[in-house]
Amino acid sequence: MSRSVTILGAGLVGSLLAVILSKKGYKVTIYERRPDMRSARIAAGRSINLAVSVRGWNALEIAGIKEAIEPIAIPMFGRSLHMPDGSAAYQQYGKNNEAIYSVSRGELNKKLMTVAEEAGATIFFDHRCTHVNVHTNELTFQHEDKEVKVQADLLFGADGAFSALRSGYVTADRVDASQFYLAHGYKELTIPPAEDGGFRLAKEALHIWPRHNYMLIALPNTDGSFTCTLFFPFEGAEASFAALKSDADVQAFFLKNFPDAVELMPTLLEDFRNNPTASLITTRIFPWHMGDKSALIGDAAHAIVPFYGQGMNAGFEDCTVLLGLMDEYGDDWEKILGAYEQKRKCNGDAVGELAIMNFVEMRDKVADPVFLERKRLEKE
Ligand code: FAD
């Protein structure tokens, strides 16, 4: 096999892609902007934990790490809705005990990196790609205080929503690209484990506090804690990040709107002050590949908002579809990348739209009395 592969980004998708391509016999090199999270104490990225669905499990099985991840995955069989009056309602996800699984993003990413290296891939950390010449595949990196040039053969951009390869594509002729920010952002907060180390809320559920224009959610972690995420307007009169200026504002707002959650959050004020407020972007681009030279994958191709819990899962599915096409077309990369784009672009766009629609469902409709009644009748 003659071609060597360069991947930008050792995140979830880049690391999984490296496993798959290395196992296929390609010589794979990854360049990652951050230090190695297995040795440095750095945050793993956009959320502490995330939900893995069937698409994700399929990909992890192919990578050979399903068994390693299963023990750190907590099934969530339904959503537990917390109403403003303190009452709660439970909605099961499926009739056959289907579940999505809460997994630590950091642990998953670390395992994928290690498996990629074991399969033969090399990862260069602290290499931030600053420029891609999409016509020649010449890459420029910032490494410590030096500029490093690399000539890539086959190149994948798995470097997330603000991908350097995507930026390179945007400068080329006949490339359509768009990005769209929600008026809402998010902030992560914590419900720590109970004093005996147990969970302070039902463990095997995704908890939602739907409040029409905003919501709080909580996913369980294996240490007994829950990571909460507040999805909240950036600006606005009363309920917005801009409006909560002081600790007293935050405390009063939470007491009024999330009374049953606030008593489980002893570090609320500290978390609210110290944790970043992050934005939520959807991106689209076409094409996803340039001849047999390069392609975008994962968030670099289709960054979506998190309300469908499918961003990583869809990126993982990009990898498994690519693997199927390698089996079909051998090493004819012009054909593989063309078919990959054809199969995946429409799905990337669709899941992006569904994710935005599900925000309205999660924050609003799930607490609607009509919706609750329909769910109750479905159960009967
Ligand atoms: P990323 O995870 O963004 O990884 C990109 C990697 O590239 C990073 O390591 C980064 O450091 C590196 N990089 C970036 N730029 C450069 C550069 N210039 N040079 C070199 N390296 C670079 N998805 C789900 O499936 N389920 C969920 O429950 C879920 N929950 C979410 C919750 C939140 C709050 C958010 C924001 C997202 C959530 N997602 C979820 C989406 C998920 O996080 C992404 O879809 C997933 O991380 C995409 O993986 P990726 O590898 O494509 O990109």
TrEMBL record:
Alphabetically ordered keywords of this record: FAD, Flavoprotein, Monooxygenase, NADP, Oxidoreductase, Pyridine nucleotide biosynthesis
Reactions performed catalytically: L-kynurenine + NADPH + O2 + H(+) = 3-hydroxy-L-kynurenine + NADP(+) + H2O
Domain called FAD-binding: residue spans: 4-167, 289-349
EC number per UniProt: 1.14.13.9
Pathway: Cofactor biosynthesis; NAD(+) biosynthesis; quinolinate from L-kynurenine: step 1/3
Similarity field: Belongs to the aromatic-ring hydroxylase family. KMO subfamily.
Cofactor(s) listed in the protein's UniProt record: FAD
Name of the protein: Kynurenine 3-monooxygenase
Organism this protein belongs to: Rurimicrobium arvi
Function of the protein: Catalyzes the hydroxylation of L-kynurenine (L-Kyn) to form 3-hydroxy-L-kynurenine (L-3OHKyn). Required for synthesis of quinolinic acid.
Principal EC category: oxidoreductase
